Amino acid sequence: QVQLVESGGGLVQAGDSLRLSCAVSGRTPFQFVMGWFRQAPGKEREFVGAISWRAPTTRYTDSVKDRFTISRDNAETTVYLQMNSLKPEDTAVYYCAADGPPYGGDWSAVRLYRYWGQGTQVTVSS
To answer: How far, in Å, are 36, 63, 68 from residue 86 at the CA level?
Structure first.
């Protein structure tokens, strides 16, 4: 069984930075993609970005490109989401997800990720 635990959320002001962590335990390393998603009140869960586990490659949704960076540690136990220049529209619950699609699949598809963390709240005030 796989467990994902997010941490690092909080209340910040616009322009500030936060780093979210996703601690991974259980059956690792993964063969495929790990992703970060977010869900704002009243909205559907949306793709933020993802990293392929082998020969790490990252992809991001357009609204966070050049502001957010995903990385993982060499022990393959933690995935990070570094968020810079935060905006009020980044306010959401952020989730990490594991065992996603293969490299050639749709990294943004919520349905293709097997395991999810409980989420961590990020609130950006203007």
So the answer is: 16, 11, 9
d(CA 50, CA 124): 22
For the stretch 19-73, pLDDT in tens is 999 998 887 656 678 999 999 999 999 999 999 877 789 999 999 999 999 998 8
Q: Which of 115, 122, 126 is nearest to 3 (CA)?
A: 115
Q: How far apart are CA 36 and CA 60, in angstroms?
A: 9
Q: Which residue type occupies 60?
A: Y
Q: What is the DSSP string of 75-119?
A: TSSEEEEEE-S--GGG-EEEEEEES---TTS-TT-GGG--EE---
State the amino acid at position 5 in one-letter form.
V
Q: Report pLDDT digits (tens) over 60-117.
A: 999 999 999 999 887 778 999 999 999 999 999 999 998 888 888 899 999 999 999 9
Residue 110 vs residues 6, 29, 87: alpha-carbon distances, Å: 17, 20, 23
